[in-house]
Amino acid sequence: MPLKAFVKVGTLANLGDVRYCAGMGVDMIGFQVISGHADYVAPSRFQEIRGWVNGPLFVAEIYGLNDSSVLEAILEDYKPDYLEMGIREVALLARFPVPYILNLKPGESMPDVAILPSWIIAKEIGGDKKIPVLLQVDTAEGMAQAINSSGVNGIVLKVDTHSSSSASVPEVLGYLLELLEEE
Q: Could you tell me which of 73, 2, 83 has the C-alpha nearest to residue 42?
């Protein structure tokens, strides 16, 4: 069954979680590709996961990128459909060889860039309506609000893999994605 909204799930590293998301109809799946990050996915693991999954677009999350020269290796090793970054990473890069998603934190505004992002991730509704907005949600209530908002083009689910909660990643993802299934 299709989902009610465009959905990106971020910071995944487990093949089972990725396959579940793909089977549920998630549109984009993100992976942290900066070495040293707690959720880092090595290129070999990423390619293994990619070989098992068809459907969603693959997003290289480059939060924490400190050296723009590393981007070439990321593009070669991961071959992402999109890059995802914050304002700090945008300022570091002179060019964007693949489409990118800009994550704006509350209080941040669109930087002056030559190439606009394909998507903006926000935690609150508002901002520039010329660029599609994905609203980052963590609760079922936030998801319902996002789906019913005219200023939102989709949602971002980021499951905390390091949470002390008793719920597992598949349980949380399953609950939220099942709420999004068309009836």
A: 73
